[in-house]
Design brief:
The complex is a heterodimer. Chain A has four helices and no strands. Chain A is mainly alpha-helical. Chain A has one domain: Helix Hairpins. Chain B starts with a helix and ends with a helix. The chains are: A mainly alpha, B mainly alpha. At the A-B interface, helix 1 and helix 3 of A face helix 1, helix 2, helix 3, helix 4 and helix 6 of B.
Chain lengths: 114, 256
Amino acid sequence: MSWLPYIVPAWIFVIGLYGMATSRHLVHLILCLSVTQSATYVLILMIGYRTGATAPVFSDVLSTVRATDPVVQAVTLTDIVVGATVTALLLAFALRIYKTYGTVDPQDLRTMQG
Amino acid sequence: MSPRARGVLAAISGLALLLVVLAGFAKLPDFGVYLGPYGTLVDELAPIQRKIPNAITAVNFDYRGLDTMGEEFILFAAVAGLTLVLRKDRRDTTDAPLPSAGLRGRADRSDAIRAFGLAGIAVTIAFGVYVAIHPHLTPGGGFQGGTITSGFAALIFLALGYRPLKRYAPHQRTEPIEAIGAAGYVLVGVATLAAAGAFLANCLPLGASGEFFSTGTIPVINLCVAVEVVAGFVVVFGEFADETRFEVDDEAEVEP
């Protein structure tokens, strides 16, 4: 059953996509996008894990101790922070769309643009 | 497109995606089995080569420092784009805050929020700076610590309101600071290129492992990132706070 944990990122990805496809509010849509994106974090952190390993910070443990892959963790930590600002940018777009079209429902938006 | 047609389209593309995802997942290694040699090598070499206990920071700010510079500029571009989008239809941007902000009364803010918010500001800054300046020794760093530290701006807005936020974290100050952080990273790269012949080569003295002043250029780059992240998030909070102002005619504003 060593593939079983991979259901977690798959589930996060699918539930985020479902939210985006059925969204009736732009803020909800953006948050669903963040959820979908976080599936990739969970997945690559899982790939970097090895059974019984500790975090790759050797302040308290010897550097010979089995540790997880630091590369995927480095990628994840920078991307969470950068992703937060990108989400803020998307929220700004949502605000601007509301001011221009008077709606935040993506399904109304399409008809308004003709 | 009707909701029904959209549902059908989503189901079809979802099925297609499912096939691709299943094909991809089928080739994944078993959970708990790590295949790549790169992570193992970094774990073994970073504490020796760079005298750094935190291998994650070694990847971020040394071995793959160029990639982190790219990430940093995505952050910079996102913040710049946000200010561009939000300011487009705002009447004034860089001057003193609109007096109309005063219309948002203080009465709707309870004492508990003000007290805990104010207490939280000091704690947030202290903890955030602590995390931010220990990238090499603890699981900290400029990205994590910078994000925590920038929470002080949100707390000022929550506890005190719009005007104090604009007084203690004004745009005119935070925007150049963000640019300085971004430019600092590049300047470190250029300086190391001139000094050691490679962009972002770690050419400063490494020091002893576990010391605060050690691991060469890593704390310097980390400081640039921390400055940029704090300033970037403060700009984001400030821009969204500007959106809470009521638009009031100039004539109406002069009346007390």
